[in-house]
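Appendix B. Raw example, untouched.
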Amino acid sequence: MYRYHAMYLYLPAGLIWLIWLVWKIFFSKKKLSPKRLILITLYYAYIMMVFGTTLFPIQNYPLTYPPIHNFIPFVTVKELITTLPTSIAIKQILGNLIMFMPFGFLFAFFANKNQFLKCVIFALFFAVSIEFIQFILGVTFVGSQYRSIDVDDVILNTVGAILGYVIFKITPHFIKDPYLKTENIDKGIENNAIVQNQE
C-alpha cells in the first residue's frame, strides 16, 4: 500500500516556477514588472493548489465503500440539501464555488478586454480536466476509483469562476487600477527592449 501527498506535486511545481522566474528575470527579452510577476506567480500557485486539493492524497488503500458517480446535473446538490444538515450542505456547495472564484478573478485581470465567454470555457475545461484526471488515476495508477466523478462539481466550479470574473469587473477602479497599469508598464518595457535590439 502507498500514499502520495500533495507535496509530490508542489515540490516539482515549485522547481519549475523557480526555473521560469530565473529565465524571465535574467534571460527573457520580454520583461515584466514586479507586480505582474507576483500576480502570475499567484495564479500559478493557485492552479497547483487546486490540483493538490482535488487530486491528492493518492493512495491504493482498500475503499470501505465504492464511490458513487453522478452524471446528471443537480442530483448531488439536491441530495446534499435534502439529506444533510443545512450547515454541512452549504459548506459543501460553497466550497466548490469558492475554490474556483480566484480562477475567474485572475482571468479577468489578465484578459485584455471583456472575455467572459472565454473565461467560462477555460473554467469549464479546467473543471472537467480535474474530473478526468481523477478518473484516469482511479482506473490506472491507483487501481480503484478513489474519488467520485460528479457533474455537479463541474457546474459549481464553473459558476464559481463566473462569480470571480464578475467580482473583478465590479471592483472599484481605485482598487484595481494600480495593478491594471502594470499591463501598460509591461508593454512599455517590451517595446523598449525591441527598440534596443533593433539599434
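End of appendix B.
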